[in-house]
Design brief:
alpha/beta, Spore Coat Polysaccharide Biosynthesis Protein SpsA, Chain A, 5-stranded mixed β-barrel, two-stranded antiparallel sheet, 11 helices, 13 strands, 25% strand
Length: 288
């Protein structure tokens, strides 16, 4: 099996949990501090050794892709103003990292978004990353997954333990623990009710798939919400080949809703040593 060199970032959703700002800005460009959420995803992809990213967007103009292209006019302006410090803040990815964009006019499920990118992926293994799942990890989560993939040669999904009350909010995997943090999956269920499973291993937005997933997506009927669910396609793939789950190491924040986005701002703000003391003083004053 080839090495994983391509990644898909689905970005055609309407971002309704973040309205009204997502009326004019796609949720992947909503910032956390001074970087759009999608920038965190792209940084993780590059740090994991991948070289080609496919954005699936509803935006024909390709605003997300354009963010990562060099703006020579802006760079020249900053050079003339001798603001080299600001130039360093601009996206600066290596030339070996290339970007592609495919258009999905209407969101119809995560599975449909992934299938939309098939022609750009071809017959290669690939990653899928959800941009609003922000995971701060010493070793990038996609790198953790590719390490498993390189060993097992089969699809691997990131998971984390959630509370029983949270189980109906996630795709859930059941499986057998076969190694350190590694499970061989027996069953996957999309947003089960509490009586449907005893597992609390929730699927989080990082995946490595074999290209066989695309054929399963083509056979997947609309599921919950009237959409093509990626979890349902994974269940079909599981009938034909092994799939693994890895309980990743890292701190995860769901930045897809307003409270999660606020938490992400505070988390990364507190990591900045120059702000940490002032933030603590500010919060102490609020709750004193």
């Amino acid at each position: 099996m080839k090495k994983v060199k391509k990644a898909i970032i689905p970005a055609a959703g309407r971002g309704t949990r973040l309205l009204p700002i997502t009326k004019i800005v796609c949720k992947e460009l909503v910032p956390i501090l001074d970087r759009p959420t999608v920038d965190y995803a792209v940084s993780e992809i590059q740090a994991s050794g991948m070289t080609h990213i496919v954005f699936v967007t509803s935006d024909k103009e390709g605003a997300i892709k354009n963010y990562f292209l060099e703006d020579s006019t802006l760079k020249q302006y900053l050079e003339e103003k001798n603001r080299l410090d600001l130039i360093e803040l601009l996206p600066n990815y290596t030339p070996s990292l290339s970007f592609d964009s495919v258009h999905q006019p209407l969101p119809s499920g995560l599975g449909a978004a992934v299938l939309q990118a098939q022609s750009a992926i071809g017959e290669e293994p690939f990653a899928v990353t959800l941009g609003d799942d922000i995971i701060d990890a010493q070793v990038p989560v996609l790198k953790q997954l590719t390490n498993v993939f390189d060993d097992k040669k089969h699809s691997v999904i990131s998971v984390m333990e959630v509370s029983q009350a949270q189980v109906p909010m996630y795709g859930i995997v059941e499986g057998e623990l076969i190694g350190d943090r590694l499970y061989k999956i027996n069953r996957v269920i999309e947003k089960p009710s509490p009586h449907q499973t005893k597992s609390r291993l929730a699927i989080i937005g990082r995946y490595i798939f074999t290209p066989n997933l695309f054929e399963c997506l083509k056979q997947t009927p609309k599921g919950k919400g009237g959409e093509i669910q990626l979890t349902d396609a994974v269940a079909l793939l599981l009938q034909n080949e092994p799939i693994y789950a890895y309980k990743f190491k890292g701190t995860r924040i769901d930045a897809g809703d307003k409270l999660g986005l606020l938490k992400a701002h505070l988390y990364f703000g507190a990591k900045e040593l120059k702000w940490k003391k002032e933030l603590k003083t500010f919060f102490d004053s609020l709750y004193s």
